[in-house]
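Input chain follows. Return structure tokens only.
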Amino acid sequence: MEKSLATLDKGTTCSAWNYSGQRLATGSADGTLSIFDSRDPASSSSSFTCTSKSRVNEAQAGIVKVVWLPPEYGDAVACICTDGTVSLWEEVVEDTQPLQWKLCKSFKSNSSKVLDIQFGILVTSLKMVAAHSDGHVKVFELLDSLELKNWQLQAEFQNVIESVSTFGKASCLSASISWNPQRGESQESTFVLGFNSDIAQLNSSKVWEFDQAHQRWLPVAELALPGDKGDQVYAVAWAPNIGRSYEVIAVATHKGIAIWHLGLDPDLDGRLSVEKVALLSGHEGEVWQMEWDMSGMTLATTGNDGVVRLWQSNLNGVWHEQAVFEPTS
């Protein structure tokens, strides 16, 4: 039997669950950030109620994406707005006042808009990757784990395999970033990134890895067949890895959802092997968002058609559609 967990305000444009699934952050077209908390955190079917509302900017630009920071850094979210700005909000206690959400940092660029951001942990430091509308990628590092307002630009590059690539000014409609969810001191810091732009070299999904020896980010794989490298990428999702000898990454383009296997051992040039093992089709129109379950065995996708689809592979590695959830109204 279906049960409503939360009632969202009219004009809600995006939402995100926190790591534990006990809090929900939503953004709206009028620039309001809302936080919903479970009425009964001990119950898996508890309903949620709105406990906080904040206006994220004075320009009243709408929020297009909300992203929770890793739980090690407290309760904090980042908001991307239609004007291309990013703001970080943190839940704080001040004197005897109840918990409040306060703005702790804003990122603005005069030349481009931020299209996507994601957070990853490298050893003991927090990184934020931001993809911009001009095709540039910026990596910021948190300088003090206790102060979410202190960030430093660590690197800036473009999403191309060859650094000598030349092309005109890029115009990017969207971008998608997904960090490797694995953590650990022996784990290299890696993420995958794809663009939806008018520049073919930027579009294909590249896997970026941090080179500790030279303190720089390097492309170690390209998730595209030779004839598909110019395809615009709508969404990417890196699956959790529990004991596999390879990584699994999903990439959505107009041709469908490609499932890629990424090798773990680099060749002499430092590149990782890639293999396209499946192409999933079923959605009508663009796929906007993809999420893996915690085991990395089930992929949930949704997009233009408003349908949520669940995909799984059997023991023989053959992928199939497991379930379909149609919109009720």
